[in-house]
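Need residues for this backbone.
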């Protein structure tokens, strides 16, 4: 899919928020994606540094991270007609398959350009 084709999809989308996401799972256009999890690469402790706050995950898609639980939506990088190439480059290391997703409710994530889209629907498989 070309940048111009992606731009046209974004322009025609009927969502308030559009994101680009890489994922190892298979989704089709129209699918609502699973909610993401808040993951940390390093352990997080309570104020006394005596108790681990989040469990370390040994198996599955979150293996190697400390899982703080499910978020209220799906994480993605905010994409617009003006930053498609930049966001494609930024997201390509996060998974095998790249999706354009949309929704009408979002909150900001912890990372730069990260948004969390509630009930995120797949609008394109790139």
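Answer:
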């Amino acid at each position: 899919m070309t940048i111009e084709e992606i731009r046209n999809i974004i322009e025609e989308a009927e969502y308030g928020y559009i994101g680009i996401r890489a994922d190892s799972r298979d989704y089709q256009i129209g699918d609502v994606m699973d909610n993401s999890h808040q993951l940390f690469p390093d352990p997080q402790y309570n104020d006394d540094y005596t108790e681990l706050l989040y469990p370390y995950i040994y198996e599955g898609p979150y293996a190697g991270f400390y899982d703080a639980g499910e978020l209220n939506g799906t994480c993605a990088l905010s994409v617009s007609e003006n930053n498609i190439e930049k966001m494609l480059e930024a997201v390509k290391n996060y998974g095998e398959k790249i999706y354009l997703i949309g929704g009408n409710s979002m909150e900001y994530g912890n990372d730069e350009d990260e948004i969390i889209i509630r009930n995120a629907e797949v609008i394109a498989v790139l």
